[in-house]
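Form P-L/3: holo structure prediction, ligand adenosine-5'-triphosphate.
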Amino acid sequence: MTTETAQTIVLVDDEENILKASRLILLGNGFGNVVTLQDSRQLMPLLEQGGVAAVVLDLFMPHLSGTELLPLIVERFPHIPAIVMTAVDETETAVTCMKSGAFDYLVKPVESGRLIASVTKALEMGAMSRELNSLKECLLDDRLDHPEAFASIVTDSKKMRAVFQYLEVVSRSRQPILVTGETGVGKELFARAVHELSGVRGEFVAVNVAGLDDVMFSDTLFGHKKGAFTGADQARDGLIARAAGGTLFLDEIGDLNEASQIKLLRLLQEKEYYPVGSDMARKSEARIVCATNRDLKKQIEKEAFRNDLYYRLCAHQVQIPPLRERLEDLPLLIDYFLGEAAASLGRKKPTPPPELLTLLSVYSFPGNVRELQALIHDAVARHGSGVLSLDSFRNIIGGDAVQLIPQTAVTSSDDPLSAIFGRFPTVREVEDYLMAEAMKRARGNQGIAATMLGITRQTLNKRLQAKKG
Ligand SMILES: Nc1ncnc2c1ncn2[C@@H]1O[C@H](COP(=O)(O)OP(=O)(O)OP(=O)(O)O)[C@@H](O)[C@H]1O
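OUTPUT (holo model):
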């Protein structure tokens, strides 16, 4: 019997030849730890020791049959998938086994491809159910085991904390992770956190794949052989070789060209690639993290993104919420970027004006955290001393009223005016409505409401007074 690790597969069969043949097939296909048991009575004690990831079980064996063992495995070790492998090709037996909780049912002689596919799926499923269990534990006690991995992400949001918890769990697997979210939400910071969490020793290598044609993509990622094309006078490794034992971060994956999508799919499925000009496949063990601000499902509908690639990528997917959906982050982020901007300019951190938070809370931040960062850096650069001026923020936010967060639910009716006013309104009614809405969103601050409306504070004040009178 060989030693066991977390990915040990146990084969149980009374026929030695079958055990030997199946073990060779699995070892030859990259399954590192395959334990064989000819005496089925040894199985349960072995499972008790832990570390077994899947069991392949014969049904008819002396002493303790597979039919007797299967329910015991399912009851005592529900996280270990059991594949039944037997000479009996009877639908009834297959149904009984599946009902008893078998993961799969294979009829001997089993074709090697079928055995490999079944064991691969069983391991994937086992890993997923372990992840799910850790996730449940994590969510129940709201803990983070490695908060240091997220140190660069400033946040106070529960939604973001849930993303952290999910990433802590899935980062342990070697499956790719897809990070989605609008531009500027911090997707690259999350990719770096995954790299930290996976505890790998290699480098974090980031590549923006938008705008790379297939030749550039292949050369950048896979490298080339000497003489592969004019000018290739030296063989050169690609970034995937640099990311060996580390993480390869593919940014803007939704913009990847079609030919390169096939190559990426191959890399994910077979874990191998060809340097340009070479017909010798190379193995890669780099962890892949992808990010996009596009809706990949829409890209699939438009036939701009491959379905099979999407399903490979989305096994572990996290969606980073836009800043306008986590306004509770604003105070921390404002403070953080004021400090960052002041430090970069070698100045003292300015005091923010009290209205800044209210003003920023009504803005929808299409560029998310990156936009906030740029706004604050700009304001600090223009700033003299004392309290920071609101002007540079007003110019951006007041200048584009469409960017304000829509808070009034306009019905999907074709006539939004009727949805709000019940009929076509007069100019006065619209003005009154806009003023009331601006005051509401500005939480009563006339200066901010005036900026939102594009009028002076005095004009707004006059109109409000006139309304009262
Ligand atoms: N929560 C955060 N805390 C601190 N800095 C942040 C946070 N979120 C984003 N940033 C900063 O905002 C900028 C944009 O972040 P990042 O490049 O990770 O965004 P992205 O989602 O990858 O954008 P894109 O889709 O355009 O590539 C970076 O300077 C990043 O450091």
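COMMENT: The chain has four domains: 8-130, 146-321, 323-405, 408-469.
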